[in-house]
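Researcher: I'd like a candidate sequence for this fold, 198 residues long. If you have to choose between options at a position, lean toward the conservative one.
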């Protein structure tokens, strides 16, 4: 079953029932043997609280709520953050004919090559005519990027030493690749250093 437009507002483990008691935003209370968070890490919009932001008289919006009715050409643009939204938006904004683009970064992100490409006509034909192929390909992309997240950011496991050791080695190698990519892509060494995570 899927319940749309409903938020989970509280979960409590009840020892006496050996159940999770889940309260929904609708007021409904349900019981489960197990609960799994499938919301995704970044499922809620994060708008920074900046003192004085309400005094800004220009146009302001989050990349998650892109304003197609606003032309950025010829304007001075400031973008806050180099997280997932920022690293996708910044190159596009830079190509929109802006007068100036200033990026404000608190913490450097692990950003490797984008690996974007155009799909060939034959690939489009296969996606169109083989049921499920495009969904399977999308899952492959999803799993690839999820494993990269795991390798870049998660701490190696101490529970199973060989897995922890392998994870640590792969993580070090991927960190090296990303650092090398940044160093080779960003020509100004001072800027490259600021864009490289610790």
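Model: Candidate sequence:
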């Amino acid at each position: 079953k899927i319940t749309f437009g409903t938020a989970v507002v509280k979960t409590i483990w009840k020892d006496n029932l050996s159940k999770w008691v889940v309260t929904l935003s609708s007021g409904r209370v349900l019981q489960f043997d197990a609960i799994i968070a499938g919301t995704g890490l970044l499922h809620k919009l994060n708008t920074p609280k900046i003192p004085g932001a309400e005094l800004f008289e220009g146009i302001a919006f989050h990349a998650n709520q892109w304003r197609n009715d606003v032309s950025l050409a010829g304007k001075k643009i400031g973008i806050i953050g180099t997280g997932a939204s920022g690293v996708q938006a910044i190159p596009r904004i830079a190509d929109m004919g802006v007068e100036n683009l200033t990026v404000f970064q608190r913490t450097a992100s692990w950003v490797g090559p984008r690996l974007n490409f155009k799909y060939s006509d034959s690939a489009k034909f296969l996606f169109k005519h083989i049921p499920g192929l495009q969904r399977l390909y999308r899952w492959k992309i999803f799993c690839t990027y999820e494993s990269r997240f795991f390798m870049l950011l998660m701490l190696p496991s101490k529970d199973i030493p060989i897995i922890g050791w392998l994870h640590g080695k792969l993580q070090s190698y991927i960190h090296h690749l990303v650092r090398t990519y940044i160093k080779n892509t960003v020509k100004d060494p001072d800027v490259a250093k600021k864009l490289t995570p610790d």
